[in-house]
Amino acid sequence: MRNNNLSMNSRSKTCPLSGKDAPKIDYKNIKLLNRYITEKGKIMPSRITNVSFEKQKKLAQAIKRARFLSLLSYSEKKFEQR
Amino acid sequence: MNNIELVYILKPDVSKQYHNEIDNKMEKSISENGGKIIDKEIWGLKDLAYPINKSKKGFYMFFQLNIDSRNLDNLNKLLNLEENVMRHLTIKVDEHEKLPSIMVEQKK
């Protein structure tokens, strides 16, 4: 029951990509995109990352563009990518 | 007129002469289609996240254009025909960002 409460709390957090000081979602900003992909290079669901619906769409688009340009891998997450 | 961002990746082992050549070709094609280059940036030789055509590196070029998006097909056709261009991407943006972009800043 305690655990249930915890997950409820984390769900009520606000979107990290909305608001005044939020970074702009861009296919060039790989450091940012890296935060929203899993170890296997999949796009993380917004229910885990708390990204709003609107921003999630933009994020997905940016990740796909970065993948096409070989800035991100399709199948794995690469750390310390410059 | 639309604001367009263009990125293309060249093969890593092409000569400097070819770089100039494709630059001229691009400029020509853009001005023929009634557009102009606002700014450009050289991201340089970078490691690819996955190999393309068996090469592990690529030479990235970035352009900010002002061109009618209906004329973009001609430009895409030109880049498609170039053998040494591995990938290219054109996207429409509302506003051009200020350079240098994140790509160059992170390099330093």
- Beta percentage of chain A is under 5%
Could you list the spans of chain A in which at least 5 consecutive residues all have pLDDT below 50? 1-8
Question: What is the CA–CA distance across the termini of chain B?
Answer: 34 Å
CATH topology of chain A, anyone?
30s Ribosomal Protein S18
CATH architecture of chain A: Irregular
**How many domains make up the coordinates of chain B?**
1
Q: Could you name the CATH topology of chain B? A: Alpha-Beta Plaits
Largest sheet of chain A: none
* CATH architecture descriptor name of chain B: 2-Layer Sandwich
Strand order of the largest sheet of chain B: 2-3-1-4
Could you tell me which chain pair has the largest interface and how many residues each side has?
A: A-B, 19 and 18 residues
**Global Rg of chain B:** 14 Å
CATH class of chain B: Alpha Beta
- CATH homologous superfamily placement of chain B: Ribosomal protein S6/Translation elongation factor EF1B
Strand content of chain B: 35-45%
Number of strands of chain B: 4
> Helix share of residues of chain A?
40-55%
How many DSSP H or I helices of chain A? 4
- In the CATH scheme, the class of chain A would be Few Secondary Structures
Share of helix among residues of chain B?
25-40%
Describe this structure in words.
- The complex is a heterodimer of chains A (82) and B (108).
- By secondary structure, chain A is mostly helical.
- Chain A is 43% helix and 0% strand.
- Chain A has four helices and no strands.
- Mean pLDDT of chain A is 82; it is low at 1-8.
- Chain B is of the alpha+beta class and 108 residues long.
- Chain B has a single domain (2-107), classed as 2-Layer Sandwich (Alpha-Beta Plaits).
- In chain B, strands 2-3-1-4 form a four-stranded antiparallel β-sheet.
- The model of chain B has no long low-confidence stretch (mean pLDDT 88).
- The A-B interface holds A 24, 26, 28-31, 65, 67-75, 78, 81-82 and B 7, 9, 47-50, 52, 58, 60, 87, 89, 91, 97, 101-103, 106-107.
